[in-house]
Amino acid sequence: MGAWLIIGASGHARSLASIVNGRGDSVAAVADAGLADATHDSAEVHQHLRPFNNAAGRPPRYFSDDAEALGFAVENSLSIAVGIGDNGIRNRLADAIIADADLRHLAGPLVAASATVDPTASLGALSQVCEHAHVGPLADIGSAVIVNSGAIVEHDVGVGSGSHLAPGAVLLGASLVGNRVFVGSGARILPGCTVGGRSVIGAGAVVTRDLAGGATYIGVPARELSSKKGTTL
Fold first, then answer.
1. What is the DSSP pairing of strand 216-218 with strand 194-195?
2. What is the largest CA-CA distance in the chain?
3. Mean pLDDT, to the nearest integer, of 5-9?
4. Which of 33, 36, 30, 86 is nearest to 62 (CA)?
């Protein structure tokens, strides 16, 4: 049984706690700036943090300072997961962890028990494959990528570092997503299509051609979101 430090205590972090417990592991520590009140005898606080308890109902150690929590992880050889869905914040933390020689070896991928990952696929440091997700043969998942619940990454797909595939997103064979892309819930990227880095693909959109980076795309087929005077398309 493994023991984990989860950085973050909000929605995505609670999902990671569920994944950890579902693997038969446990959350040994949680770090979040908002946890300064976690030691108070507050029913509201304890209810909020209940998903982080282990199978026996015992709460983890709480930290309001990330550096202190990471030091605790090193001392106790805890695996580390960054439970923050926002690409910018998650990637800043992940980059610092991966760059630190004392932390790097604790920053492996986290894979849910219900997820399937082909043995020929590769998963980067601090990547996450959530419940009922699938990663196919020869797929290449970069560091700090979230393959969220029910998302499908088919064969030969590349996902750049720091990207987030929301629940139910589907990346079909040999498609390629750049770094720090957000693919919305239920969106699809058709076979062989490329999405440039730092793009946002709206929920339910279907990418049918190569798309340049740094833009937001919506609809079927996906088109760039542009603004006209007084109107947002």
1. unpaired
2. 58
3. 96
4. 30
Tell me which H or E stretch contains 116. Answer: strand 116-117
Task: Measure Cα distances from 201 to 80, 81, 124, 194, 219 in Å.
Answer: 28, 25, 22, 12, 9
DSSP 56-100: TS---EEES-HHHHHHHHHHHT-EEEE----HHHHHHHHHHHHH-
Strands laid side by side in the 122-123 sheet: 122-123, 140-141, 158-159, 176-177, 194-195
pTM over 0.90: yes
Q: Give 230's pLDDT tier (boundaries 50, 70, 90).
A: very low
Task: Give the C-alpha separation, 86 to 88, whole Å.
Answer: 6
Please tell me the distance from the alpha carbon of residue 113 to that of residue 132, in angstroms, as a whole number. 8
Each residue of 119-164: pLDDT tens digit?
999 999 999 999 999 999 999 999 999 999 999 999 999 999 999 9
Closest by alpha carbon to 110, among 228, 190, 204, 18? Answer: 18
